[in-house]
Amino acid sequence: DRTMPLARPTGQIPDAAWTSGFREMTEPWKGAVGCLGVAVFFAMTIGIISWQALEQSPEEWVLRGRAGGFCYAWEEDAELRLSLEPSPDPDTECYGVCWTPLRPDVVLKDCFSMANVSWYGGASTRAQRWPLNGADSPAQPFVSGDFGKNPDGYGPLLERYFLGSTGVTVTVPPDIPLLLSLESDRHFCLATPAGRAAVRGAASRALVPAPAPSASCRHRVQTPRLFPPRRSPIWRYHGPEGSAAKIKRGLRSLARRLKRHRLQEGVLALGEHSTAVLAAADPTAPEQSRRHGSPHAWDPSATDALQLAITLSPYASIASPLFLRSLRDGDVASPWLSLRPRFGGCSVPLLTTWKGQLCARLNVTSEAALSWYLARVRHLRQALGAAYVAVEGAEGNAFLEQALPPPAELAGDRYTEVLAAALATLGNAIVISAGARSSHLPLFIQMSPRRSDWSHAGLKGVIPSVLHYSLLGYNFFIPDAVGGSLAGDAPGDPELYVRWLQIVTFLPVMAFSTPPWLCCDAWVLNLTRQCIRRHRDFVVPVLIKYSEEWLRSGYPIFRPAWWLSPTDPTAFTVEDEFLIGDEVLVAPITEKGQTWRDIYLPGEGHRWMDTNTARVFDGGTVLRNYSASLAEVPVFVK
Fold first, then answer.
1. SS3 helix, strand, coil % of the chain, rounded to 5?
2. Cβ neighbours of 166 (radius 10 Å)
3. How far apart are CA 369 and CA 376, in angstroms?
4. Which stretches are transmembrane (predicted)?
5. Run of H or E residues at 430
6. Model pTM?
7. Where in the chain are the domains?
8. Which end of the chain is more exposed for a tag (fewer CB within 10 A), N or C?
9. How many CA atoms lie less than 13 Å away from 231 in the CB half-sphere?
């Protein structure tokens, strides 16, 4: 049986002996018995409601029932408490829903139907869908994760916020242990482990059709801070990294090639290993307590006009000098997450894996450890001349990964939340790999790596991910590199590279792992230059304009088709196009070999102009078999 509050009973009545007799009754008798049953049901319902209204406070009703044909089992198992909550909008009703188990073995579970309702928000998945109706996932902790460790788990960005196409939103407080399951096109379920405390949540319903989730009870939203998108692209370094000298030569070589191809603006991004090699060559590192200059420190002029980005993580290999130094100093536990002994004694570091190595993880609950880590980040950024710092490995709960109960201060995604807040103090040039209740912070969010293919784990999942991130408040993200960075079914496919490039042009940052001159013909290199210019001259000004609106209203910058067509069911499932604000519609090709597609133009009463042909079309219509050659991406302005 499923406990489903605020929903019609869906359980099956057992096929008892009297049902066979009922089937043999004549039609008039069946009708009479049916009418009598309906009358009794309504009489009981009205009686219960009248009793509640007269005997209980109208804003604090407790409903109790018993298992039967309606699949409700409350009295011996759980107590349901409903309360009317203050609403941020006069056109919205907000309710508090609290389930309390009455026995330690009770598993509390609420399921929300996907029949005729499209749902958005929640967790990111490896093969991202929009809406999430098409996703499948067994019940598992609602905690951010690394697809590299658990491809079937939830991804690095999630919020306890679910939005339905009917105007209903569901939120769950962060202190409630939560399991989420997704059953494609049937329902999604929220549950808690057996024996845990009460489940509390909020449900809101818009009384009038709303054009956006702004009318819902989004208690998590805080005042965002504004910072600009990147005007220049990111070029990831994949050259020699055996020594600091080899890395320097490799960076200079990449800078020269970019200049030769007239792509000399941007950021050269070093991975974590290359950063560690350069850091090891710097004898002024803070952990060695020295501050004098060094001939081995990184020279920023080595990259000419290009800026440098370095990559760090909150992990330290147990074989690294950093971890071994803490052993030598006799302070092995304090900088790292540790297991607390049950009967006294010394704490021992909680070891986990990161990029195939056994590692300890930074203890973000220790102010001393956080201060030390932030000082190290500041020093390396200055010593290496880096304009940007990327921090990987912010996602996940190291305790839950090993089936250990986490301490209260690190329950759920508290690790990600605390680390993000600390990194935000370093300025707005920080990139982090995960997000949870941190959309208000001035941080770039690095999207997960995607497969180099046409699937939803590859190209088809880019736009659903964009819409998912933006709906949850994370508008300043860095998409995966053009063409994908994980091995897939189409490595080195020029068509895939071009179609990917056309989407990334309209996102906050353009990122490249494989330069165009290595994968494709000369015309793709020329197209790359055009896309970079279009991003700088056309896209970035529009993003800045709607960034200011986001700052005022909390509206997402990247919007789905239903934003302008909130009552059109066709718009609810459009996952291969997106809006920038209310005035730019991007409808790229995401199918291999196609040079045409159907395009949904949202907003009845609006007019849309194709930027390629200057043709004008009415909103609220579908353009069938609309042409888009390999060198074109359909873009419309209102």
1. 30, 25, 50
2. 14
3. 11
4. 32-54
5. strand 430-432
6. 0.84
7. 60-208
8. N
9. 11
